[in-house]
Amino acid sequence: MKRRKKRFVLPLCLLLLLSLCAPAYAAADAPFADIHGHWAECQMTWAQEAGILTGTSSTTLSPDDTATRAMAVTVLYRYAGSPAVEGTSGFADVPADAYYADGVAWCVQAGLITGKTETAFRPGDPMTREEFAATLYRLLVDRHGVPEQVGENNVTTLADFADAQSVSAFAQDAMAWAVGDLFLSGFRQEGDARELLPQGPITRGEMIHLLRQYDCLVEGNPAQLYRFSPEDVRSIRLQQGSGLQAMITDPAEIQRFLEKVNAFTYTVQENPRPAGGFYFFADLHLTDGTSVCLLLSQNGIDHHYTEPASEGDAYFPLDWMESFGLRK
Does the record carry Repeat as a key word (predicted)? Predict the structure, then answer.
């Protein structure tokens, strides 16, 4: 499998966002209202537009609902392009006319998943986090072989999670890979401990987030990180390290800033140790009273990077930053 080399980029931020995924915001009139402002909005939108995920109704994608085993195999089957399937899965609890029948058959025949017993798939059972990671890992191995190295760009490992020992034996390699290469960051618990909750049910949002990380960081397809609506942003405080700063309140300037941020896509992600350097903070103050802090580098946001169009170019060049009126 082709491995991405670690890229050394001039750091423009000191903080590392450790959430499962960065938050995203979209226009209030989006067709699926329940993903507006959800942390997995960009990923859910991608999956829906690509025909990988369908709504639970005409107006909902239900990102916080539990994903069943039927949903999970269907999503992976559609992601693979809905290839032709020979025969059936052979499970007594998978009707031939079920929406998930081809997904079960394909995933089983491809070696991505097994039944709960020889005769039962249990399509309505919740898909656990470690089960989905294992299924996705098997897709990786099928397409690219066993990875030679895991976590090349990530200082966090499976051992950093308080419940690492609770990961089932069958999912050890998969969860280590999901943490190291897909940047699965788990959940903050009391006392600042982090847990993966491997046997817990995975939500639709978490499932699609991991799939999008795979699609981007393994298959190399650029992924959108943020989707802000100008109507949702009241002001932006832009600061260069501890020095120059600007307060952006003009709607036209807010829109100009957000157009650049929204158009940003990444193919590389890093989780480096904090280091000093030249950086920008952009604090977005939202109309609902909350705020989002972006950490901008020359070619990245929040340690997600894009390849410049040509050598010497920068996605967020200094003159663009300065055009917003940075001053002491």
Answer: yes
Would you call 275 exposed, middle or buried from its count of C-beta atoms within 10 A (0-12, 13-18, 19+)?
A: exposed
Please, which pLDDT band fits residue 309 given cuts at 50, 70 and 90? Answer: confident
* Residue ranges of the chain assigned to CATH 2.60.40: 230-322
* C-alpha torsion angle, residues 126, 200, 120, 84 (rounded to 10): 60
User: CB 169: neighbour CB atoms within 10 A?
Assistant: 6
Q: Is pLDDT above 90 for 276? A: no
Q: Let me know if 195 is exposed, middle or buried by CB neighbors in 10 A (0-12, 13-18, 19+).
A: middle
Q: What is the pLDDT of residues 250-273, one digit of tens each?
A: 999 999 999 999 999 999 999 986
230-322 placed in CATH 1.20.58: no
* pLDDT the model gives residue 7: 31
Q: What is the dihedral of CA 67, 73, 79, 81, to 10 degrees?
A: -150
By the 10 Å C-beta count (0-12 exposed, 13-18 middle, 19+ buried), 274 is classed as exposed
Q: Is the pLDDT of residue 42 over 50?
A: yes
CA dihedral (139, 142, 148, 150) in degrees, to 10, reads 0
Q: 246 and 253 in contact (C-beta within 8 Å)?
A: no
Whether the model clears a pTM of 0.85, i.e. scores above it, the answer is yes
Burial 234-254 (b: 16+ CB within 10 A, else e): ebbbbbbeeeebbebeeeebb
- State the DSSP H helix or E strand holding residue 142, giving kind and residue range, or none if neither: helix 129-144
**Cα separation of 297 and 282, whole Å?**
11
Contact assessment for residue 178 and residue 217, using Cβ atoms and an 8 Å cutoff: no
* Dist. CA 216–CA 224, nearest whole Å: 10
Q: Which helix (H) or strand (E) holds 104?
A: helix 101-109
Task: Give, in degrees to the nearest 5, the angle at Cα 253 between 249 and 254.
Answer: 65
Give the helix/strand (H/E) hosting 49.
Answer: helix 41-49
Query: Taking a C-beta distance cutoff of 8 angstroms, is the pair 152, 6 a contact?
Result: yes
